TrEMBL record:
It is a peripheral membrane protein. It comes from Streptomyces chiangmaiensis. It catalyses: GTP + H2O = GDP + phosphate + H(+). Coiled coil: none annotated. This is Signal recognition particle receptor FtsY. GTP binds at residues 207-214, 289-293, 351-354. The lineage of its organism: Bacteria, Bacillati, Actinomycetota, Actinomycetes, Kitasatosporales. SUPFAM superfamilies: Domain of the SRP/SRP receptor G-proteins, P-loop containing nucleoside triphosphate hydrolases.
Length: 400
C-alpha cells in the first residue's frame, strides 16, 4: 500500500513540474530581432543593348582636354537654306476668237450620224415615202427631237419638190440653210460677264454629277482670261471630295483667285464670300461652281435655289449656265427641265460634243428650254471649250 501511495506522489510531482515549464514558456516574451546588417547597394540593371554595346564595359585609358589635339582651323559651317518651291508658271490660254472653227475637225466626227447621213439619203434619185421615213429616223437618232424633226422634214420635202433636179452642191446648200434655221442664228449667245461700276459679272454654273461641271468652270475661266478678264473662282461644291482642289488647280494655271470653304460646309456661304472677295479685289468676273446634284432629289435642288438667293444679296446673277452631257440625249432634256424650274437658266453648255455625241441635241435642248447653247466642249484639252457658232457647227456636221 505504501508503495502505491509513493508512486502516486511521484507522478503528481512530475506532472506538476512539466505543467509549470509549459506555462512559463508561454508567458516568456520573444526577444527583439537583431538589427539588420547594412544592405549591399547594387546598381540598377542596365538597359539592354545591341551589338558592341551589349559587351561588358572595359576600363579604358581616358585623356584630359589638354591631351586632345584639336585642329588648328575648322571650316565654317554652311547652313543650307531649304529649297524654295516655285509657283507654277501662268499659262496663256488660246484666244477664243474662231476657236470653234479651229476645232471643226473634231466636231465633224459626228457628221456620220446627221449631216452625212442626210446628204446620202437626199441624193437618191427617187425620194419616196420610205426614204423620207429614213430621213426622219436619222434625225431622231441624232437626238434632234420629234417636233424639230417633223418641221425639218416638211420643209425639205417642199423645197426638194420645187427644186426638181438636185445636184450635190444644191443639196448641200439646201441642207445647210435648213439646219441653220433649225439651230437658230438670231439668238444671243454671248456669255454676259461684263462688270459694272458697282459689281463684277456673276456667273453660276449648275448641273448634275458627271457632266464635267467643275472642269467646265475651270475652262471657262481660261476663256475669260484669254479675253483679258480677271477672274475669281468660288468653289461652292463642298460635297464632293477634292472638288475645291480641282477648281483651284484650274485657277492657278491662269492666275485666277479661288475662294473655298471646309469640305462639307455651307455652299451658299462660300458663294457669298466669293462674290464679296471679287468686289473687294476689284476683279471683273466671279464664277461659282455649285455642287453636282441629282435632278430627282428635291432637297438638293432646294439647296441650289438657296445658293442663288444668297448670292443675289450682293447683286443679281448675270448668267446661270446649265452644263449638260451631250451623250445623254433625252435624259439630258429631263435634267434640263428640272433645273429650269429651280433657277432661271440663261444658257446651255454642252460637253462631250465630239465624235461620241449626236449633234442634234443642240436643237432639242434649245427648243426644250427656249435658251441658247452658248458654249460647247469638244474634248479633254484645257482649251477645248469654245463659244458656240451656228455656222461653224453646221458646216462641221455636213462636211466639206
Amino acid at each position: 500500500m505504501e508503495i502505491v501511495i509513493l508512486a502516486v506522489v511521484i507522478a503528481v510531482v512530475v506532472f506538476g513540474a512539466l505543467g509549470g515549464l509549459l506555462i512559463g514558456s508561454r508567458r516568456r516574451k520573444p526577444l527583439p530581432p537583431a538589427p539588420p546588417k547594412t544592405p549591399d547597394i547594387t546598381a540598377p540593371p542596365a538597359e539592354p543593348h545591341v551589338g558592341e554595346e551589349a559587351e561588358t564595359p572595359r576600363d579604358e585609358e581616358r585623356r584630359t582636354i589638354e591631351e586632345v589635339d584639336l585642329p588648328e582651323s575648322s571650316a565654317p559651317v554652311v547652313v543650307e537654306e531649304p529649297p524654295t518651291v516655285e509657283a507654277p508658271p501662268i499659262e496663256i490660254p488660246e484666244p477664243t476668237a474662231g476657236r470653234l472653227v479651229r476645232l471643226r475637225a473634231r466636231l465633224s466626227r459626228s457628221q456620220n450620224a446627221l449631216g452625212k447621213g442626210l446628204l446620202t439619203l437626199l441624193s437618191r434619185e427617187h425620194l419616196d415615202d420610205e426614204t423620207w421615213e429614213e430621213i426622219e429616223d436619222t434625225l431622231l437618232t441624232a437626238d434632234v427631237g420629234v417636233l424639230p424633226t417633223q418641221e425639218l422634214v416638211e420643209r425639205l420635202r417642199e423645197r426638194v419638190r420645187v427644186l426638181g433636179t438636185r445636184t450635190p452642191e444644191q443639196l448641200r446648200g439646201l441642207l445647210r440653210e435648213e439646219l441653220l434655221t433649225l439651230v437658230g442664228t438670231d439668238m444671243d449667245r454671248t456669255v454676259r460677264t461684263e462688270p459694272e461700276s458697282t459689281k463684277p459679272g456673276i456667273v453660276m454654273v449648275v448641273g448634275v454629277n458627271g457632266t464635267g461641271k467643275t472642269t467646265t468652270t475651270g475652262k471657262l475661266a481660261r476663256v475669260l482670261v484669254a479675253d483679258g478678264r480677271t477672274v475669281v473662282l468660288g468653289a461652292a461644291d463642298t460635297f464632293r471630295a477634292a472638288a475645291a482642289d480641282q477648281l483651284q488647280t484650274w485657277g492657278e494655271r491662269v492666275g485666277a483667285y479661288t475662294v473655298r470653304g471646309p469640305e462639307g460646309g455651307d455652299p451658299a456661304s462660300v458663294a457669298f464670300d466669293a462674290v464679296k472677295e471679287c468686289k473687294e479685289m476689284g476683279y471683273d468676273v466671279v464664277l461659282i461652281d455649285t455642287a453636282g446634284r441629282l435632278h430627282t432629289k428635291t432637297g438638293l435642288m432646294d439647296e441650289l435655289g438657296k445658293v442663288k438667293r444668297v448670292v443675289e444679296k450682293h447683286a443679281p446673277l448675270d448668267e446661270v449656265l446649265l452644263v449638260l452631257d451631250a451623250t445623254t440625249g433625252q435624259n439630258g432634256l429631263v435634267q434640263a427641265r428640272v433645273f429650269a424650274e429651280v433657277v432661271d437658266i440663261t444658257g446651255i453648255v454642252l460637253t462631250k460634243l465630239d465624235g461620241t455625241a449626236k449633234g442634234g441635241i443642240v436643237v432639242a435642248v434649245q427648243r426644250e428650254l427656249g435658251v441658247p447653247v452658248k458654249l460647247v466642249g469638244l474634248g479633254e484639252g484645257a482649251d477645248d471649250l469654245a463659244p458656240f457658232e451656228p455656222e461653224a457647227f453646221v458646216d462641221a456636221l455636213i462636211g466639206d
